[in-house]
């Protein structure tokens, strides 16, 4: 594409007058500033020091003993059901089985 000489002179003039060294301090990150402001406000509302609680030895659970108790409870004999068959009742509206043959 060929440009007229006046357009080239105008473009070169604009580039010469507007070019300068980049200074990042001219830019301001508004998102970062707002986030820091919110965090400082939250931090001011928090108590100065959170009291530490020492763990007590009374609340310690032996996992092996708990597992043994659980297994012993599972093995305990269950009371007999009323139906006697031990199978759950279907209520008469169970899924029908297809006959093969």
Automatic annotation (TrEMBL):
Annotated spans, Disordered: 71-101
Annotated protein name in UniProt: Ku protein
GO terms for MF: double-stranded DNA binding
Membrane spanning stretches: none
Source organism per UniProt: Bradyrhizobium icense
Biased composition (Gly residues): 83-94
């Amino acid at each position: 594409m060929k440009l007229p000489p006046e357009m080239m002179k105008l473009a070169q003039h604009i580039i010469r007058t507007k070019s300068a060294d980049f200074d990042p301090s001219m830019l301001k990150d508004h998102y970062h500033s707002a986030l820091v402001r919110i965090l400082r406000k939250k931090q001011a509302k928090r108590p100065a020091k959170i009291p530490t609680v020492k763990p007590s030895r009374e609340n310690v659970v032996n996992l092996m003993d708990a597992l043994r108790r659980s297994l012993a409870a599972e093995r305990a004999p269950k009371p007999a059901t009323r139906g006697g068959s031990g199978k759950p009742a279907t209520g008469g509206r169970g899924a029908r089985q297809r006959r093969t043959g």
